[in-house]
Amino acid sequence: MSASQIPSSANVIKDLQAIVGEDKVRSDAEILLSHGRDWTKVHTPAPLAVVFPRTAAEVQAIVQLANKLEFAIVPSGGRTGLSGGAVAANGEVVVSFDYMSHISDFDPIDRTVVCQAGVITEQLQDFAEERGLFYPVDFASAGSSQIGGNIATNAGGIKVIRYGMTRDWVAGLKVVTGNGDLLELNRGLLKNNAGYDLRQLFIGAEGTLGLIIEATMQLTRQPKNLTAFVLGVEDFNGIMNLFNRFQAEMDLTAFEFFSEQALQKVVAHSKVPRPFESTCPYYALLEFECLNDEVEAQAMALFETCVEEGWVSDGVMSQSLEQLKNLWRLREDISETISQWTPYKNDISTIISRVPNFLEAVESLVTAQYPDFEIIWFGHIGDGNLHLNILKPDDLDKETFFAQCAKVSVGVFEIVEKFGGSVSAEHGVGLLKKDYLSYSRSETEIALMRQVKHVFDPKGIMNPGKIFD
Ligand SMILES: O=C(O)CC[C@@H](O)C(=O)O
Ligand SMILES: [Zn+2]
């Protein structure tokens, strides 16, 4: 298409209105700002318009129009992403799923339920609970994140050690590919070895191959009497030893960690009580199903062994639902609490056994280069996934701070590469990590990914510039 053929914004908006109705296309400043970015808040949003389809047919018509007029599409769910995957900063059309939030076709025998892309995670969790079942992928943003976005980013969260990532709960997907085809992938089947599993390609593709419009989600039984320990530990070898000891005898539903600095900030911000009086450099949060007195006695015995071995210096076990919730808040409130310091975020992983050396190497590098920067460590240590947040000092402006962090990032990613890890464990690549993709994926892999994109999105209209250029 030559420059003279480029459609005017007015024409794009008029054609979109013909598909979804006038009131479902918006281009006022407020909506362009709210729906043109995610939680990263690094880029300035500048979409052309935000469109709110209500049906699969409307979504398909939008993608077909985008192919015809060659405008770019950015899919938008709950916009809770942390890598800029849902940022529209270049005149794109944002497709929001806010009006596609219907849950249907629950089947108690298959334990599956069909969700439109805009179903909020918590809505699905509540739906499952009302039917005596459980949707286990959980994280602090469950009240705003949408299922379509969770699938597009293969969201992880705080129970991955037991239940896996979003990928493990998608039994079927309805998608519109970048070239406008509507595909029904896997259709809820448990066993289906008839060729390539295209469903898996769309999970974690960050909207670069097409739009997810509906998903058949798997549910499971509800866990019983969840109980948590918060244990104070002196070092990472202690954490690994206690992880090993508990895992050998119990199925944990979570194994998380956070530092004393993280704890102090949450206690001050959220007014949750400290778990116990003494302070320790790090804390581990373990959760398990306390099915009966015998399991409780076994858990207590394990705790005592860990204290005797010197791996744990203090600890507390929840005795009620309220205490369980308060212990979880110590971990779950960290991300929101530290957002007031404009943190530079990294979401990195390695295999679990390498975590202590990995963390030490990253910490020495950052503190050697920037001794004044405060580092907040927390994360899903049972998954080998660490969240490294560097807080902006008050007296440093945002641009200088991010520029300095970007320099140290290269060193961090060299360590990630050396440890065979990932530059994005669970937050995706989006805009923020694309320059570093080659630290955890080979050139051949990236070239193949580009070819896959071309198959599903030959005109390059689907979320361009995300994952790679
Ligand atoms: O804010 C972060 O760095 C992590 C957010 C989230 O993945 C969490 O585990 O709390
Ligand atoms: Zn996380």
UniProtKB/TrEMBL annotation:
<dbReference type="InterPro" id="IPR006094">
    <property type="entry name" value="Oxid_FAD_bind_N"/>
</dbReference>
<dbReference type="InterPro" id="IPR036318">
    <property type="entry name" value="FAD-bd_PCMH-like_sf"/>
</dbReference>
<dbReference type="Pfam" id="PF02913">
    <property type="entry name" value="FAD-oxidase_C"/>
</dbReference>
<dbReference type="InterPro" id="IPR016164">
    <property type="entry name" value="FAD-linked_Oxase-like_C"/>
</dbReference>
<keyword id="KW-0274">FAD</keyword>
<protein>
    <submittedName>
        <fullName>FAD-binding oxidoreductase</fullName>
    </submittedName>
</protein>
<comment type="similarity">
    <text>Belongs to the FAD-binding oxidoreductase/transferase type 4 family.</text>
</comment>
<dbReference type="InterPro" id="IPR004113">
    <property type="entry name" value="FAD-bd_oxidored_4_C"/>
</dbReference>
<keyword id="KW-0285">Flavoprotein</keyword>
<dbReference type="InterPro" id="IPR016171">
    <property type="entry name" value="Vanillyl_alc_oxidase_C-sub2"/>
</dbReference>
<dbReference type="InterPro" id="IPR016167">
    <property type="entry name" value="FAD-bd_PCMH_sub1"/>
</dbReference>
<dbReference type="Pfam" id="PF01565">
    <property type="entry name" value="FAD_binding_4"/>
</dbReference>
<dbReference type="InterPro" id="IPR051264">
    <property type="entry name" value="FAD-oxidored/transferase_4"/>
</dbReference>
<feature type="domain" description="FAD-binding PCMH-type">
    <location>
        <begin position="43"/>
        <end position="222"/>
    </location>
</feature>
<dbReference type="InterPro" id="IPR016169">
    <property type="entry name" value="FAD-bd_PCMH_sub2"/>
</dbReference>
<dbReference type="InterPro" id="IPR016166">
    <property type="entry name" value="FAD-bd_PCMH"/>
</dbReference>
<keyword id="KW-0560">Oxidoreductase</keyword>
